[in-house]
Amino acid sequence: MRVTLAQLEAFFWVARLGKVREAAEQLNIAQPTVSLRLRDFEQAVGAAVFERAGRTLRLTPKGTAMLEHAEVILGEVGRMGSGPDRQEIGGTIRFGSSETFAVSGLPDLLRIIAEEHPALRIELSVGPSRGMIDDLHERRLDLAVVVNPTVDARLKIVPLGVQQSTWAASPDFGLPRTIRPADVQHLTILVNSNPSPNFHQTMAWFAGAAIAPHNLSVCNTVPSVVAHLAEAGVGIGIFPNKLIETHVKAGTLVALECSPRIENAYLCVAHRANEAEPAVDVVLETVRRSLAGTDLLEPI
Length: 300
What we know:
Blueprint: H1 5-17, H2 20-27, H3 31-45, E1 50-53, E2 56-59, H4 61-79, E3 91-97, H5 99-104, H6 106-116, E4 120-126, H7 129-137, E5 143-147, E6 155-163, E7 165-169, E8 178-179, H8 181-184, E9 188-191, H9 197-207, E10 215-218, H10 223-231, E11 236-240, H11 245-250, E12 254-258, E13 265-272, H12 278-292, E14 297-298
Parallel strand pairs: 3-4, 3-5, 8-12, 9-10, 9-11
Antiparallel strand pairs: 1-2, 5-13, 6-13, 6-14, 7-11, 7-12
């Protein structure tokens, strides 16, 4: 028995989405048809390519190896068309975003996708970078804008630029315009949980002066919520400049100069390596375009 293109498509979408039902919706065919194509595919390759993990299907080692071949083949098939009759890029991309990009670049990204690729649907998740990296590995996301990702052979990391950060506090604290670790070590320091980029930036700043903060308040939430806590005088913290821009203009937060300087935070796009999917390339390029008209990043 030979492997057919229809079987490859069924295998690919179940591998990406983890469920036969969602793959059937993506392919616009009935669930039993997907199941039949998977069965025939396994017979053709002579091995099981999925195993059940709760309510989802997870790739076996053989399935993981086969997926790389399937992605290349389907990618080449997708590029065979040319000219005005070429098939429109469609389907669903599960896109993860840091909150700062969601505030600054996401509106333009969604507008461009809707105008230029109306058949392409974006499923959006906004959250911490570490969680989105895990979601990429577990195939819950296809692409993510993240901060300071670590080198990982399983992922392709595309740097976008430097995301500037600043210490910020309620004006009620009456802090000097330029702060040093000794000036604020006695205050409540608002941080995201370890190993977030924000936690690392904060601890590295204090460590530069060989000082430890007395009271860390760990906040397992998005930065905008932490900014509201700072605005209310609960504590002070390090924030992306763009995220607190409106608070600073309103006078409810003060952006503080500091010594030593805060370590750079690098905004990057991450997606799984060695996966040829035109829709991912389209979204990656649109991320770049959506940032071009903003002042969110500085060049690396």
